[in-house]
């Protein structure tokens, strides 16, 4: 089978998706935010300027105030555009997260942008909020608008990494208006909390920094709080709208993004293999959308090979297996490092003899039977939500935690690798000079991290730093091991959907014949992810109310494994299956019939 000819960079998924993102950003900036800014400018012009100001004067002031408000929100969203990302930052504890986020250039950039934006908003709202400022109140006014308000919002934005776009598992498309409406209440609550923090900080800051001739009274404090509330709401709405428009998903005008290309499947494959996380995530969202859509026409290009595209399904399967295996490998190595380094890793209890008896190696009678899924209060059906008041049961632990380790030969590479057009940043084009500066900063950062947070070679067990050993968070460690859990989830959903639907839509095609390979990678996922899900240590900080991402992926993997086994029930008798796959198949079928 010949490999597909490489597409031109302008026909790649990244290029098409970048154009879509630019269109969405333009709609955000030229429609929603402009309308919001002009409305806010009209409100400030109507309520300010004093009662003696004529109507014509307020009408003249309206465009000026609207322009200042628009400039303020535009600065915020343009900065968000440059720091946009979809992956987790990769910290293992709250201490390392705070340290890493605060010691960054991004903090300085955001503080400067918020200072300028605050000056624009305060200039538009000064007569409406403050009115005439007394000389003794001038320092408090400047301290609030120039420093405290930008500092508070910058700290919470950077520390909690609010530049990251979030996506729901299994949701390939979301409407911007619905997204904003569902989060307005939380946004207002956050703005109230930030305003309350300002009220607490303002007296202390004024006591230490204010000159003798300045005074802080309840009147100027209430006006400062009102100005802070207005600015916080404006900024948070701009960020909320940015999240809504840039996380719409893989559909453009109701059609998959790859359909904008003349070669949709070839373009989609370039997205699945993209080095850019946002592009890769969206491509896997589209693959999942095609796999689960009731419209069979979206899957026909995957099945049919009459147009000399026989490499489509093998290429898709290869990218899915690579994505799943990368997380499995990282998780398996981490569990092995705990066994080697800490020595107090709690081993899971050995399974009962009836679960993994010698009979499970015999395929006769295992498949081709009718299975009814029943509920049992004493056991946890794979794929169901974790109970809050009980421990997870029926975990499968991998026998060899280094099963995913690979030997990579040393290859010489240039210290600076510049990406081509197909891998440029979404929305923002990077020049050669910016690439050089970025690579220099990246290497300095790697050297700094390697000195203070040493780790061993990736081929061996990872060495935890002293900060991580002090108090490691299981939730954050899971995010470090699986920085793109949405891609993993969409891979599993895509493979499950395509395999199950191909039984009726293309029963003699290449997809059906790949069931053994898919079951094998899912069995490995259950082993490695299940070992992490069972990880319980006294030094680990756990939040039982919300499961970590690896536990979620474990449940999804074992649920997909079960669905495929049940759908391919009789056919599996004629398929060669690995011994571990047969063991896990017997286990999940027994759980279904408990």
Characterization of the model:
With 594 residues, the chain is mainly α. The protein has 2 domains: 11-251, no CATH class; 313-403 and 461-592, no CATH class. It is built from 18 helices and 4 strands. It has helices at 13-47, 55-82, 94-102, 105-129, 138-159, 176-209, 218-246, 264-272, 277-292, 300-303, 312-341, 432-452, 466-470, 474-481, 485-505, 515-533, 549-567, 579-592; strands spanning 251-252, 255-256, 472-473, 540-541. The strands form 2 sheets. The chain has a two-stranded antiparallel ribbon with strand order 1-2. Strands 3-4 form a two-stranded parallel sheet. A hairpin with a 2-residue loop joins strand 1 (251-252) and strand 2 (255-256). Helix 5 packs across helix 6 (176-209), helix 11 (312-341) crosses helix 15 and helix 15 packs parallel to helix 17. The longest helix has 35 residues, at 13-47. The chain is elongated and about 90 Å long. Mean pLDDT is 79; it is low at 344-363, 372-422 and 453-467.
Q: So how many helices?
A: 18
Which H/E pattern describes the elements?
A: HHHHHHHEEHHHHHHEHHHEHH
In terms of DSSP E residues, the strand content is under 5%
First and last CA, distance: 46 Å
Largest sheet: 2 strands, antiparallel
Helix content: 55-70%
Q: What would the principal axes of the Cα set say about the shape? A: elongated
Strand line-up of the largest beta sheet: 1-2
Mean pLDDT: 79
Stretches where pLDDT is under 50 for at least 5 consecutive residues are: 344-363, 372-422, 453-467
Q: Radius of gyration over alpha carbons?
A: 28 Å
Number of strands: 4
Count of separate structural domains: 2
SS class: mainly alpha
Membrane topology: Multi-pass membrane protein
InterPro entries: Nucleoporin_prot_Ndc1/Nup
Family: Belongs to the NDC1 family.
Main location: nucleus
């Amino acid at each position: 089978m010949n490999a597909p000819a490489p597409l031109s960079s302008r026909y790649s998924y990244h290029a098409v998706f970048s154009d879509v993102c630019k269109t969405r950003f333009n709609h955000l900036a030229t429609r929603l935010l402009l309308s919001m800014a002009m409305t806010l400018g009209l409100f400030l012009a109507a309520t300010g300027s004093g009662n003696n100001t004529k109507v014509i004067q307020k009408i003249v002031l309206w465009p000026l105030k609207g322009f200042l408000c628009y400039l303020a929100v535009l600065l915020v969203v343009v900065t968000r555009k440059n720091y946009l990302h979809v992956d987790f930052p990769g910290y293992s504890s709250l201490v390392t997260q705070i340290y890493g986020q605060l010691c960054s250039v991004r903090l300085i950039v955001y503080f400067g942008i918020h200072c300028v934006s605050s000056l624009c908003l305060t200039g538009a709202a000064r007569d409406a909020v403050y009115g005439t400022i007394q000389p003794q109140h001038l320092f408090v006014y400047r301290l609030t608008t120039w420093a405290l308000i930008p500092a508070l919002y910058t700290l919470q934005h950077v520390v909690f990494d609010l530049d990251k776009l979030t996506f729901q598992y299994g949701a390939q498309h979301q409407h911007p208006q619905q997204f904003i409406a569902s989060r307005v209440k939380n946004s207002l609550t956050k703005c109230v909390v930030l305003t309350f923090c300002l009220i607490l900080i303002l007296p202390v800051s004024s006591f230490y920094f204010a000159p003798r001739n300045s005074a802080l009274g309840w009147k100027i404090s209430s006006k400062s709080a009102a100005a802070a509330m207005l600015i916080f709401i404006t900024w948070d709405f701009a960020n909320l709208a940015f999240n809504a428009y840039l996380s719409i998903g893989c559909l453009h005008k109701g059609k998959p993004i790859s359909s904008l290309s003349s070669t949709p499947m070839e373009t989609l494959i370039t997205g699945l293999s993209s080095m850019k996380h946002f592009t890769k995530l969206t491509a896997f969202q589209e693959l999942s959308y095609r796999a689960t859509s009731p419209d069979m026409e979206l899957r026909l290009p995957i099945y049919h090979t009459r147009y000399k595209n026989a490499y489509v399904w093998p290429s898709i399967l290869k990218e899915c297996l690579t994505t799943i295996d990368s997380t499995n490998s990282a998780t398996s190595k981490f569990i092995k490092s705990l066994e080697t380094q800490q020595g107090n890793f709690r081993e899971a209890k050995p399974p009962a003899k009836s679960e993994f008896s010698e009979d499970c190696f015999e395929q006769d009678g295992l498949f081709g039977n009718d299975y009814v899924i029943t509920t049992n209060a004493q056991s946890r059906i794979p794929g169901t939500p974790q109970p809050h008041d009980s421990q997870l049961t029926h975990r499968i632990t991998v026998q060899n935690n280094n099963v995913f380790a690979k030997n990579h030969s040393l290859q010489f590479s240039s210290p600076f690798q510049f990406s081509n057009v197909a891998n440029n940043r979404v929305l923002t084009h990077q020049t050669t000079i910016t690439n050089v500066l970025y690579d220099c900063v990246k290497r300095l950062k790697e050297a700094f991290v390697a000195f203070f947070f040493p780790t061993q070679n990736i081929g061996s067990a990872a060495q935890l730093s002293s900060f991580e050993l002090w108090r490691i968070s299981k939730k954050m460690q899971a995010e470090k091991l699986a920085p793109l859990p949405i891609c993993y989830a969409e891979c599993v959903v895509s493979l499950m959907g395509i395999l199950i639907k191909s039984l009726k839509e293309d029963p003699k095609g290449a997809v059906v014949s790949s069931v053994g390979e898919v079951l094998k990678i899912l069995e490995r996922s259950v082993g490695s992810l299940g070992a992490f899900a069972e990880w319980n240590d006294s030094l680990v900080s756990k939040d039982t109310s919300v499961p970590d991402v690896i536990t979620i992926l474990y449940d999804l993997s074992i649920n997909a494994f079960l669905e495929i086994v049940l759908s391919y029930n009789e056919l599996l008798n004629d398929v060669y299956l690995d011994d571990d796959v047969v063991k896990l198949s017997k286990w999940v079928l027994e759980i279904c019939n408990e």
